[in-house]
Amino acid sequence: MAAFGARLRRLREERGWTQEELAVRTGYSSKHISGVEIGSRPSTLRFSGVVDEAFGLAGTDRSFDRECRRVRHGVLLEGFPEYVHQERRASEIRMFEIGIIPGLLQTPEYARVLAMGSVARGTITDDQAAERLAFLAQRQQMLQRERPPMLFVVMDESCIRHFVGGAEVMAAQLDRLVEFAASPYTIVQVAPFVMGERRALNRPVTLTTLPDRTVFAYAESQNQGHLERESGAVTSALTLYHQLAAESLSQAETVAMIEEARKGMM
Questions:
Q1: Are residue 96 and residue 225 in the same domain, yes or no?
Q2: Contacts by residues 254-260 (CB-CB < 8 Å, ≥ 24 positions apart)
């Protein structure tokens, strides 16, 4: 992001344009352009596309669009940095996950196995795996703050049954879940397989509540993340989440299930 912004500033200055002049040419505010140039605001594909038009770089090897895709897709899904910006400000986070332990609750060893699996499949490089792991560790630091956000987690039972990294890695991960459940700032629940058709959500979703009570919903496809702000869609997702939580195991029942699964790995 810093390199992207520095290059934008350099090309703008080479043409003798002020930030205000580039703003007119792109339809973005000078404040937005300043944020991208200093690296405090990530570029979007739309922004990089209009910048390419302004500089005459569209479709070339030197295009900002090409650079933006490399920066944004090399480590993180498009849309995820925008979500993380809201996550850092959140007073409450509600999430539902299927198949794997949610990132904020992963041990370093569990996260590393998942990242190296992506390396083995050729979807990312070793360096990109290292960047993902460093980024996850940075996200997890917010849970160590004096007043961390309240974290409400509902996991499909597949999360604790999906065997990742061998017995030692998985056992340590389950131990971590039990530790999280003991925190006064964390509620952990399992949506059991026997819930069947009563499971209100069929794909992972995260809902972040800001201190002013604004709520955002975040969901991912295979190739892109989307942060939803529209009140109707967010309210619907929040309602489904509460219905899911109501049908799920209590935290005490969840801990008992996790501990039972843990015994099978000894």
A1: yes
A2: 254/181, 254/188, 254/189, 254/190, 255/178, 255/181, 255/188, 257/157, 257/160, 257/190, 257/192, 258/160, 258/174, 258/177, 258/178, 258/181, 258/190, 259/174, 259/178
Domain of 218 in residue numbering reads as: 80-102+143-263
Asked whether residue 6 falls in the same domain as residue 64, the answer is: yes
pLDDT, tens digit, for every residue of 118-152?
899 987 788 778 888 988 998 999 998 989 999 99
Same domain, 43 and 88: no
Q: What is the pLDDT of residues 181-210, one digit of tens each?
A: 999 999 999 999 999 999 999 999 999 999
Within this chain, do residues 88 and 212 fall inside the same structural domain, yes or no?
yes
